[in-house]
Design brief:
With 919 residues, the chain is an alpha+beta fold. Among the domains are: 134 residues, no CATH class; 105 residues, Rossmann fold (3-Layer(aba) Sandwich); 88 residues, no CATH class; 171 residues; 86 residues, Immunoglobulin-like. Helices cover 48% and strands 12% of the residues. The protein is built from 38 helices and 20 strands. Strands 2-1-5-4-3-7-8-6-9-10 form a 10-stranded mixed beta sheet, covered by helices on one side. A hairpin with a 2-residue loop joins strand 16 and strand 17. The N and C termini lie far apart (140 Å).
Length: 919
């Protein structure tokens, strides 16, 4: 995080001092820094890596020079490269305690490629400060150029590896592990043999070699520490060189890490070298040729530009790029690699050509594409394969104009070479990959037509001819007509007619109709498509051929009604241009089909066209048409078929207009036999009553149809009109002539006694009226007469009364009735209480009370009197004054009241006198 976007190299010093940049008391702190570094960056990105832990054993001589330095190289979170060295300081500013001093260079991300590309700038530089004079201040200069590396030469790679005890296999394992550590979150710990100071110098040399063998993408992420007293696993540090003896058997922290203990000859957890075999082989071959190594890495860098970052850190990507680089370099090794798997090479080229922009032009890949295409076109023995061509097409989207033309010529030559062997079928798989890119296909086929017109035609002929069904043929024709317009119309016409004939020849009659209809619609629509207008004559020719083939090969007797209905494309109406090409037999077949089609597709208002079509038929064709039509509805007849059924029995007569005549008698026989129920027959009769073919011009009923209906009801349904639902249904027809006919049939088919009643209906009606009058009068006189004779007794019912009560009144309920008098009189204790049903309160006297209930009807008859006994038990309490004390004040009224009291008392005792007229 460099302040103000500085693009210069910053410096940072860290050690133990009397005071620092961030603290005012003594201790470890930043003692000097370039102005371009801000405080937050220093504390978060630099301070964590300013530390030093010296060797466990004090070096001989105890001089600071004998202590190893520690070089730390890592990439900060903001992308800056930090290169720092930490050295041991025997005495700090007090002179009493040891310390360490760290000098760090902070290289901005925009400049760090100058460091990562040249490992000597990192691992060979000696321009690190080892102390700082506080009198010089706390500000360090910014650098525009990196420090100049030291003059010390690096040993030869083999000499260095041999001195460190590394073989080819162990070096390749180490290189793969170091590269993998960037992405797999596993640390690499290396222990070198020798004294700490020498081991640290060897670590720098080894890292310089490893760094020079890694692609730039790994270098931009890899972090290294050349000396540490123990494994700490700091962030951003992927490779750490440990002091000899720092590894402990019981250190579980290292179990999942990759450990190379060269001092003991032990490896643990290392990545297998087999995952990048070709890459490692190339690196090993070029280990002593830094210029060629740099050329390889530049090639990879250019190929990976613009692609997703993950590819640049994938070992498999470098396996493929290594192959491409080897082929680019030429020679027998490169040619052998290409010939071993041409398709894979082209797929790799297509992968790495992606992401190209004007800023990231991949010129080396384009040059390789051109060289390989020229190799393919120049060698007549080279044969193409679908896999190779498909892989080549992956480069087409990124190819320049000249490269694209060369690619088209290459594919065309592949096709021509395959056809030259005499096997046209071998060319089809070669063309299939480019058919998915119509524009490219047109370019390739135009090139092929220029090189070998005969080969171009044979390819199109094979593609059209191998179509084994309608859909495949339509697809093939649409493609070739659109994209092979350099071929002649005569060629396409001949090939298409042959293909259509082959398709129709292998189908049954019904499938022939379906196939013909589908192809007819296809050619009818084809010439209307944009860009295909020039094929109009070709399409008309094909439609004509399809119709002639169907007329020639499809017998009517082998078709179903639904298939005839699908012939509308050639029958509704027949095309005028078809007629001149028809023979007499074809013309008769066409008229036969047209008549049947008109009847099967008949709708309301189309009867005239159907009659005219049938009128054109000769006797034999008319018989064939009607036999076909009758077979259609033999096992079921919907209402929509009634009009067609009528034409199945057409006799002619419509040549000069009108409806013509019909065989009504066999027509009704057919309807009766074919209908699934009588309901269908009645529905047909109802429908015919409103159709002019059955009613005649006057709207009544055709005499012949009248006779046919009479015969039908006599022969098939003699009892129909005696059924009320059927009779009501037919009588409700809106045609009076039909209604009159049904009445006549109903009368004729009725039983003899019904016909006799119908003839003598007037006397019978008078007799019925007299009988009805007697039935009305007789009940009026029968009741009194019957009562006088039978003298009925009413039935009396009295509700139960309690035997004892403390109330001085009680309610008596009774009802009486008989068959002649519904309201007899009811008397309670000899007093009329009401008629039919009564409810009467009776006053009780103390002691025993007898209650009588009697009924009497209007004829003077009474049932046995019902008697009930109720005991009044006086309530306990003071004696009330007698009720008669107020009597004298009422005069006569009092006397009357006294009489009433006496009467009620006598009634209670049962001594009342019966009313007048009682018996």
């Amino acid at each position: 995080m460099i302040a103000n976007g500085q693009r210069s190299i910053q410096q940072h010093y860290f050690t133990r001092a009397r005071e620092g940049v961030f603290r005012t008391n003594e201790g470890f702190d930043t003692v000097a820094a370039s102005p371009g570094l801000d405080a937050l960056f220093i504390k978060s990105a630099l301070h964590p890596y300013c530390y030093y832990k010296g060797p466990r054993e004090k070096p001989d001589g105890a001089e600071g020079a004998e202590y190893p330095a520690a070089l730390a190289v890592y990439h900060a979170d903001n992308g800056d490269l930090v290169v720092g060295q930490t050295v041991y300081v025997p005495a700090d500013f007090t002179g009493q305690r040891s310390a360490f001093f760290t000098h760090q260079y902070v290289v901005p991300a925009a400049l760090k490629d100058e460091w990562v590309r040249y490992p000597e700038r990192i691992f060979a530089t000696e321009q690190f400060a080892v102390h700082h004079d506080a009198r010089l201040g706390k500000e360090l200069p910014e650098l525009q150029e990196p420090p100049t590396p030291g003059a010390a030469a690096s040993p030869e790679p083999d000499q260095l590896l041999a001195g460190l005890g590394l073989t080819r296999d162990s070096f390749e394992q180490l290189l793969v592990s170091v590269m993998a550590s960037v992405t797999n979150r596993r640390k690499v710990y290396i222990v070198l043999d020798g004294e700490p100071a020498q081991a640290e110098r060897d670590a720098r040399q080894l890292m310089r070699l490893l760094w020079s063998c890694m692609p730039y993408a790994f270098r931009r992420r890899l972090g290294v520490l050349t000396f540490a007293g123990e494994a700490e696993g700091k962030q951003h540090l992927h490779v750490t060189f440990l002091e000899k003896g720092a590894l402990r058997q019981s250190d579980r922290q290292l179990e999942r890490e990759m450990v190379f203990d060269l001092s003991a000859g032990k490896l643990a957890g290392a990545e297998p070298a087999a995952v990048a075999g070709r890459w490692l082989e190339t690196i090993w071959t070029l280990r002593e040729e830094p210029e060629r190594l740099q050329a390889l890495f530049d090639f990879c860098e250019q190929a990976l530009a613009g692609l997703e970052p993950g590819l640049s850190l994938s070992l498999s990507s470098y396996e493929e790029l290594c192959t491409l680089f080897t082929i680019e370099q030429g020679g027998s090794a490169g040619d052998a690699l290409y010939d071993a798997d041409r398709a894979r090479v082209w797929r790799s080229l297509g992968t790495y050509l992606k992401g190209e922009t004007q800023e990231t032009a991949k010129t080396r890949l384009h040059e390789l594409v051109v060289r390989l295409l020229r190799l393919e076109t120049g060698d007549v023995k080279r044969a193409g394969s679908p896999q190779v061509i498909d892989a080549m097409l992956g480069c087409e989207a990124y190819a320049e104009r000249g490269e694209r033309a060369l690619l088209c010529r290459t594919v065309a030559l592949f096709v021509m070479r395959a056809a030259s062997a005499g096997d046209t079928a071998a060319t089809a798989p070669l063309l299939e990959p480019i058919q998915r890119q119509p524009e490219l296909f047109r370019s390739v086929f135009r090139e092929l037509s220029g090189l070998s017109p005969r080969t171009a035609e044979s390819c199109a002929s094979y593609a059209i001819g191998r179509a084994d069904n309608t859909r495949v043929l339509q697809s093939a024709l649409a493609f070739w007509l659109t994209n092979a317009d350099m071929l002649s119309l005569n060629f396409f016409a001949g090939e298409t007619v042959a293909a259509v004939k082959r398709l129709l020849a292998k189908e049954g009659a019904a499938r022939k109709v379906d196939t013909g209809a589908a192809l007819f619609r296809f050619f009818d629509e084809l010439s209307e498509q944009r860009g295909l207008e020039r094929y109009a004559d070709y399409c008309e020719l094909l439609k004509l051929e399809i119709q002639l083939m169907l007329l020639e090969e499809v017998p009517l007797a082998e078709l179903e009604a639904e298939h005839v209905s699908r012939l509308g494309f050639m029958l509704d109406p027949p095309a005028p241009e078809l007629l001149p090409h028809l023979s007499k037999g074809h013309r008769l077949t066409l008229e036969l089909w047209a008549a049947v089609y008109r009847v099967l597709t008949l709708e309301r208002g189309g009867e005239a066209k159907a009659s005219a079509a049938l009128a054109k038929l000769g006797p034999l064709e008319l018989e064939r048409a009607q036999a076909f039509l009758r077979g259609v509805w033999r096992n079921g007849m919907p209402r929509t078929a009634f009009s067609g059924v009528a034409y199945s029995f057409y006799r002619g007569g419509a040549e000069h207009g009108g409806w013509g005549s019909f065989d009504f008698d066999p027509m009704l026989d057919y309807v009766a036999e074919s209908a699934d129920s009588k309901e269908t027959v009645y529905a047909f009769i109802e429908w015919s009553a409103s159709d002019e073919r059955f009613t005649g011009p006057s709207g009544g009923i055709d005499p012949h149809y009248r006779a046919a209906l009479n015969r039908y009801f006599d022969r098939y349904d003699s009892g129909a009109l005696r059924q009320k639902p059927v009779r009501q249904r037919l009588m409700a027809i809106g045609n009076p002539a039909f209604v009159a006919l049904f009445r006549e049939i109903n009368t004729r088919q009725a039983p003899s006694w019904q016909r006799l009643l119908w003839k003598r209906r007037k006397p019978l009606i008078l007799a019925a009226l007299l009988a009805a009058a007697l039935l009305i009068v007789l009940p009026l006189i029968w009741t009194p007469v019957g009562a006088f004779i039978t003298r009925p007794v009413p039935e009396l019912q009295v509700a139960e009364l309690p035997e004892r009560t403390s109330s001085d009144t009680i309610t008596v309920k009774a009802q009486a009735a008989d068959n002649y008098d519904r309201m007899p009189k009811i008397y309670v204790n000899g007093v009329l209480a009401g008629q039919g049903e009564v409810s009467r309160e009776v006053v009780l006297a103390a002691g025993i009370n007898t209650i009588t209930v009697k009924a009497e009807n209007k004829y003077g008859r009474s049932p046995e009197t019902v008697t009930r006994t109720v005991i009044l038990e006086p309530a306990i309490g003071p004696k009330l004054p007698p009720p008669a004390a107020a009597g004298p004040t009422n005069g006569a009224g009092g006397a009357a009241g006294s009489d009433t009291a006496r009467t009620e008392t006598s009634n209670v005792k049962g001594e009342s006198t019966p009313p007048k007229g009682s018996r």
